[in-house]
Each structure stands twice: as C-alpha cells, then as structure tokens.
Write a structure and sequence with these properties.
With 831 residues, this protein is of the alpha/beta class. It folds into four domains: 255 residues, Aldehyde Dehydrogenase, Chain A, domain 1 (3-Layer(aba) Sandwich), CATH 3.40.605.10; 204 residues, Aldehyde Dehydrogenase, Chain A, domain 2, CATH 3.40.309; 154 residues, Hotdog Thioesterase (Thiol Ester Dehydrase, Chain A, Roll), CATH 3.10.129; 144 residues, no CATH class. It is 33% helix and 20% strand. The protein is built from 23 helices and 30 strands. It has a seven-stranded mixed β-sheet with strand order 14-15-16-13-12-17-18, with helices on both faces. The longest helix has 25 residues. The protein is globular and about 90 Å long. Keywords: Hydrolase, Oxidoreductase. This is Oxepin-CoA hydrolase / 3-oxo-5,6-dehydrosuberyl-CoA semialdehyde dehydrogenase. It comes from Chryseobacterium takakiae.
C-alpha cells in the first residue's frame, strides 16, 4: 500500500515507521498509509524560518495576492481528480464542492482583496498618521510586517482541502511560511492538492511544507515569532496551548474547537409561513451535509414550545426523504462519516445524550449502493430535550455527526438564554420575519457567538446558509469554540503580522511608508503630474497652480448650477450669530475650482476620477479671496483589472487649497485611475517608419521561419483586413472562447512566440510575396497604415472581422495592431 509522502525542507520524504492505515469510508478498502516517523521537525521549522521567510517576506502584498490567484487557477484545472478522492472520504458531490472549490474560492477572495486594498510593498501602513508635535515636524504611524517565524497549521478531518486553504490564504498573503498538518483521515486528498501546489512552481521555496500523519513532537521546537493554528477538539486544543514551548515562548495560538451551534425558529414562523419551511430545510441541510461533520452544523434546534410537534413532524419527514449511501450515486444526498473510528466516537456521544434526553427520530434508511457493515454510515438522529434549562447534556456534549437536539422556548429572552448555554459557538442562526424579535434576540446572544446568521424570505434566495463561513467575515467564536478568529477579510492577516510604531519627521515617514506626509518635501518638475503614466508617478510629485480670485458671480452661479441655496451662500441678512462675516463660497465650489486649477486639459494617462477621501474645509472663502492649490502624489495602489479595461493603477493625490494669506482652507485626497505604460508600439507613423529603417533583407528572425519581407506583408495583410479589404468571412476561435480572446487585447501580456496563427496552415498564400522587394513592401505597408488611421477617424463606428478575435471596432483593432506589430518587430530584433 502506498505511503503518503511528506514535503519538508524542499523534499518529498516517506516516514520510516508502520504508519496509520487510511480507509475508504464508503466500502472499507484501504486507500493509503500516513506516516511521519523519523522526520526532522526541528529542521523543518528552521527551513521555513530561513529559506521560506526570506522568500515570502521579500514579496509585496500585491504580488502575494497575485500568487494566490495563480495557484487557485492551477488547482481548479485539476479539480476532477480531487473529487474522485473526496468521494472516498464519504463526501457527496455537494459536500466535495464546498470543500474543494470552496477552498479555491478562499484563495480567489484573498487575491482580490490584496489587489484592491493592499500595497505593492512588503509592508502595510496601518491607520492614519498621527501629528504628535505642535508644528507638525514630528509624526507617528504604524506599519505591519510579516512575523518572523513559521505558522504550524493543524487541521481537522472534515474539510481536507478547505481546512488547509482557508488558513494558507491568510498566512501566505501575510508573508509567513507554513507547515500544514492535516488529520491523517482524508489526508490523501490534502496530499494530492498539496502536490499540485508544489508542482505548479508558483510558490517560492520554503513557503509551505506538509506533514501527513501524527504531529509527533513538532510543537517542541516552536519559538518566539512562530504561530499555531489549531482546528479540532477543545480538549486537545487546550493541551497544545498549555505546552511549555507554546505558553513559554510567546507563540501565537489560534483555536477553532467544539461548537454546539443553535438555530432559533422565531415566534412568528408558524407552519405555512415561508420562514417555517426555510427553517426545516436549513436544519435538514445542516444535519446531513458532510454527514453532520461540520464545526458549524446545527446541534441545538430552538423552537417555540407550541411548535415542537410541528417541527418534529416536518423535520422527520424531510430526513426520511434524504437518501443516504454511496456518494457516487446520483440519488445520494448524504454520504458517510469519514471512518469507523469517528463512527464509534459519535455512537459514544449519542449514548451520553440518551442518558438525559429522548431519541425521537432514528431513521432506518436503506443505503444506496452501500452497506452499513463496510462503510461508516449513520442515519440522522434527532433528540428532544423537553427541559433545556434543567437538562444540560444537550449544551455540553457534541456528537460530531448527523445528530441534533430539539428544545422548546417561551419568549425572546429564553431563546437568547438557550443560545448562550452552548458556552461559546461559532454560529447561531435565527429564522424569523419579525424584525423586533430578531433584533432583541441577536444582540442578547451575540456575546457567545462568532457569527449570527438571520434567514427570512427576503434573503433566502441569495443566502449562503447557516453553515458557510465566508472569507470576508470572521470565522471563530468565544468560549468553547476556542476564541479564535480566522479569515474575516483583511483582519485575518493581522494574526500573522507584527505591528510597529514609526516616529519621525514628515520626510522620514514619507521615505519609510512610501506614503506622502504633509510637510514633507515636494518634488516639482516641468511635466504635469497628470501627464505621467502610473509607473512614472513618484510619491511626492507635486504641482503648484496659478491663483484664482473668487467672485460674487462665482458664488451666485454655483448656487444656480448646483441648486444649493443654503442661506450662508445666498442671504447676507441671515448671517447674524453664524461663523460667517458675509456670504461664503460653497465648499464644493472650492473643491471644483481647485480641480479646475490642477487638472491637465491635454489627453494623458489619467483615465478617470476614481473617488474622494477625507475632504475637510478649515476656513471660509469669501468673494475677493484668491485660492492656490498644491497637488501632491500621496500614494500609489497597484490594481488588477479584468475584461476590457485599460491596465491601470490608482494614485491618491493630496489636494491642499490655500488662500492669499497662505492659510489652508481645504484639504482633500482625490483618487485617479492612471494608465500603466503599454509595452506595445504606438501607431505613430514616424516612429514606425524609424523602426522599419532598421529592417534589411539580411535581418534574421529570433524565432519562426518568416523572411523580413514576408513579415512586413503579413502585417500589411492584417491592416487591410482591418479595413475590410478583403472582409474576413470566418473567425477561427470557437464562439464560447471569443469573449476571453477579445478581452486579452486590453491586457499588457505579449503574444506568445510559439503561437501559430490558426488560418496560416490553411492559407499558405499569405506567405507568398506580393511586392517586388522589401523596400516596396515597407512603403505599401506604411501607406495602408496611414489609410487605416484616416479610415477610423472618418468611420469611428466601423467594425470588421478578424480571423482570431472576431468582429472588432476601432479601439480593438488599434490594440490588436499594437500587439501584433510589437510581436513581429521583436521577432526581428527591431525593438
């Protein structure tokens, strides 16, 4: 039987012991062996802290986000084999989708957050700058840097893929190397996904390591700066947390443990209401999804005392209709537990529940294409606790399977009290259409819950469900649930980051943070900042504008244009007792006038106004006052763009408006989208002619078999097709891929060198020479390129077919030609 290999210190290594046999949960056949005996865990941690930390922490947050996206795409292409392994853990297709593609989705989410909100630097400036001196020459702020250590991630058996990826999404994005330790059960699936992550070559050396089996003494070697993330039982978690190496070395510890989650049916949600039906469906799903092996599953069903019978009847009927069996069967809606060992443990907990509460549903399901003897199958079980304030077993014992307990309540006060008797839960849900009931219950139970999920007819269609942790929201809970906080959007990164206060002068803080601080030196040049591409803009680039004297007519006209007739702008007789001496210019007029002073009217790389932040008005501006504006590049934010958008970044500009007395009257931060410099040649006739002057009959291509004249005539043919001469009658790209190909015209990725044009094989005539020599071909090409430019000025709405990209308009043809010309000019070493 094959042993699962461990991946440590950059090598795949087998354990040297007998290991733990791993079985197919559906038919009992052995799948693999997990073994960690003989591994040097001390060396593994050292490798992560040295090689891994150096490689990961030197990357920027933005680049690490891009890395997550590429890894997720790589894994997504290989998902079929993961599903095949997932079925062996007893998971249905839906269960597997949550685990596998839910895990990939977490990577995608964090990649998107990084590219929208995190800097293109290895550190992250946290919060605003604090002015801590009277004259502003001494400032303070905070930066976040990767904690200098390794994150050891100990995962449970119920989600072999998601459990790994949801932890890695934050640790990798934060720049901290990780050692993944999955539960042995189901680790063959974790191992398969991990192998592909390594084979992708997308992760830097030392970024991740994998230990498939028992953890041994790995935690004996943790030190200051290391972190431990544990998902499992509270008992085991507390033991790990109290280890001398963990407790004595300031090791960060995050635990996600037991959770007796509840779902509350509102007093208003009687049979016949949409909420009653939603409640039954939600409880049934949470009892049967992953065969109840979810840390977020509903364990306590809290129902109005007069509806206990109705809920018992409806839920029993729904559970009766849930087919159990082989996950590979289309009929199956619930698979097995992950193994016989877990089955025995659930049975032990069921017997504890039976001691105090009544088993009221124990559906004896016939299995679909499976049997109880070989597989780890268990039918759903529903208990009734008729006195939930006296019988505590339901609030103390969690059977980690398709097991839940029904219990009655009288009013909102009792419902919240029962919810809190779980002594700390990952999630509690309320199903009700009564806003007052929901409001009162939710805030009273919130102190003992990490998440509260409210479901009713309005949200049901788009709801993600009681049991679904989301990357953008915190996953964790107080008390018994472990007190952990995972994911939660960018907040999830803070666990892995060191926060450091930085103090110094404005110039020093600008240099350290790469964010311009008021009072720092400004950099002036003859080139207007709005004429610079994103790459050219430097923090501190500044512009001082001419002055503009505000007039009474400006104030009156702005009132009329904006319809803002607030008395302070229009009625001089109403100013007694106000802060104004006379009618005052509108604040938004001052901001608009400032923009009029600092914008560049000439077309340039600035694409659009992207937003406005932190606008404040400090002094009134009256008719006769003269304003001047200082515009300074404050911060640059790299930005990923999709589809038919020009590659660009966001530049934040500090706008300081001063009056004739040099007093600041307005400060704001405006955001602009600024185009990135294209690597492709402009369609400028003079520049292209100059480039072609370097092409001779003896010029050799760097790749391919074209001669110089064939290349020029090939480009000329493309120009003629863009004029409809001749009109291409066919596009060789399949219809379902066409949109993706057209979108690719907008990005800055170059055409691949080895890409064969799909039509060349069928139309060899395209390579037959039409002109008498190279010089004649060049001249004809330039003449037709000039015609192309004139044609689309005269016919801006024209569209013509392209063999690869389909029907293209003026903008798309220009982008295509720029890429195409660059591709072939580089082929012959001209650029």
């Amino acid at each position: 039987m094959e042993k699962l290999k461990n991946y440590i210190y950059g090598e795949w290594i087998e354990g040297s012991g007998n290991g733990i046999p791993l079985y197919n949960a559906v038919n009992g056949e052995q799948v693999a062996i997990s073994d960690t005996e003989g591994l040097n865990f001390e060396q593994a941690l050292d490798y992560g802290k040295t090689v891994g930390y150096k490689n990961l922490s030197s990357m920027t947050f933005y680049d690490r986000g891009e890395m997550l996206k590429k890894v997720a795409l790589y894994l997504l292409e290989r998902k079929k084999k993961y599903y095949e392994l997932s079925y062996k853990t007893g998971a249905t297709h839906v269960d597997s989708w949550v685990d596998i593609e839910g895990g990939f989705g977490t990577f995608f989410t964090y990649s998107g957050l990084a590219k929208r909100m995190l800097p293109n630097t290895p550190f992250w400036v946290d919060g605003d700058t604090q002015r801590i001196s009277a004259n502003g020459t001494f400032l303070g702020t905070h930066i976040l840097t990767p904690s200098e250590g390794v994150s050891i991630q100990i995962n449970a058996y119920n989600f072999p893929v998601w459990g790994m990826l949801e932890k890695l999404s934050t640790s990798l994005l934060a720049g901290v190397p990780s050692i993944v330790k999955p539960s042995p059960f189901g680790s063959y699936l974790t191992n398969a996904v991990f192998q592909d992550m390594i084979e992708s070559g997308l992760l830097p050396e030392g970024a991740v390591q994998l230990v498939c089996g028992e953890p041994g003494n790995i935690l004996d070697y943790v030190q200051d700066g290391d972190s431990v993330l544990f998902t499992g039982s509270a008992t085991t978690g507390r033991k790990l947390k109290s280890l001398p190496s963990v407790a004595g070395n300031a090791v960060r510890f995050n635990m996600e443990a037991d959770s007796l989650n509840c779902s509350i049916l509102g007093l208003d949600a009687k049979p016949g209401t949409p909420e009653f039906d939603l409640f039954i469906k939600e409880v049934r799903n949470e009892m049967t999804t992953k065969a109840g092996q979810k840390c977020t599953a509903i364990r306590r069903i809290v129902v109005p005392e007069n509806l206990i019978g109705d809920v018992q009847h409806a839920l029993s009927k729904a559970l009766d209709q849930t087919k159990i069996g082989n996950p590979l069967s289309r009929e199956t809606r619930m698979g097995s537990l992950v193994g016989k060992q877990q089955y025995d443990e659930v049975v032990r907990k069921i017997n504890l529940l039976k001691a105090e509460t009544e088993l009221i549903y124990d559906g004896k399901h016939d299995l679909v294409d499976a049997d109880y003897e070989n597989g780890a199958f268990m039918s759903p079980k529903l208990f009734l606790n008729d006195k939930p304030f006296e019988k505590n077993i339901s609030h103390d014992v969690e059977a980690f399977g398709p097991v839940s307990t029904l219990m009655p309540y009288k009013d909102a006060e009792e419902a919240a009290a029962l919810a809190k008797r779980g002594k700390g839960s990952l999630v509690g849900s309320i199903v009700s259409y009564d806003n007052n009931f929901v409001a009162e219950t939710s805030w009273k139970m919130a102190s003992q819950h990490g998440r509260i999920f409210v479901l009713n007819r309005d949200s049901a269609k788009e709801s993600t469900g009681h049991g679904s942790p989301l990357p953008t929201l915190m996953h964790g809970g107080p008390g018994r649930a472990g007190g952990g906080e995972e994911m939660g959007g960018l907040n999830g990164l803070h666990f892995f980051l060191q926060k450091t206060a930085i103090q110094g002068s404005p110039d020093i803080l600008t240099a350290i943070t790469k964010v311009y601080q008021q009072g720092a030196e400004k950099k002036y040049s003859d080139k207007h900042p709005f004429q610079k591409y994103f790459e050219e803009v430097e923090v501190g680039d500044s512009l001082e504008t001419a002055g503009r004297t505000v007039t009474d007519a400006d104030i009156v006209n702005f009132s009329n244009v904006s319809w803002d007739h607030f008395y302070a702008h229009t009625d001089a007789t109403s100013l007694t007792g106000t802060i104004f001496d006379k009618t005052v210019a509108h604040g938004y007029f001052i901001l608009s006038a400032a923009a009029g002073l600092f914008v560049s009217g000439k077309k340039g790389p600035v694409i659009a106004n992207y937003g406005l932040e932190n606008c404040s008005f400090f002094k009134p501006v009256y008719a006769g006052d003269t304003i001047t504006v200082y515009l300074t590049a404050k911060e640059k934010i790299n930005r990923g763009v999709k589809g038919r958008n020009i590659p660009s970044g966001v530049v934040k500009w500090l706008v300081e408006v001063v009056n004739q007395r040099d007093e600041i009257v307005c400060v704001a931060t405006i955001l602009t989208l600024v185009a990135k410099q294209s690597p492709f040649i402009d369609l400028n006739l003079k520049n292209i002619q100059k480039t072609l002057n370097g092409l001779t009959e003896s010029t050799q291509p760097g790749w391919g078999k074209m001669s110089p004249q064939q290349m020029i005539e090939h480009l000329e043919h493309g120009v003629l097709v863009s004029l409809g001469e001749p009109e291409a009658d066919k596009c060789f790209t399949p219809e379902e891929q066409l949109e993706k190909w057209q979108d690719s015209l907008y990005n800055h990725r170059k055409m691949p060198k080895d890409f064969p044009a799909p039509f060349l094989a069928e139309d060899e005539k395209l390579l037959e020479l039409k002109h008498k020599n190279l010089e004649a071909a060049k001249q004809s090409f330039m003449d037709n390129l000039k015609r192309f430019i004139i044609y689309y000025k005269e016919n801006p709405q024209a569209e013509h077919m392209n063999f690869v990209f389909g029907k293209l308009n003026k903008e798309m043809w220009e982008l295509m030609h720029r890429k195409h010309f660059t591709h072939h000019f580089e082929q012959f070493g001209l650029i």
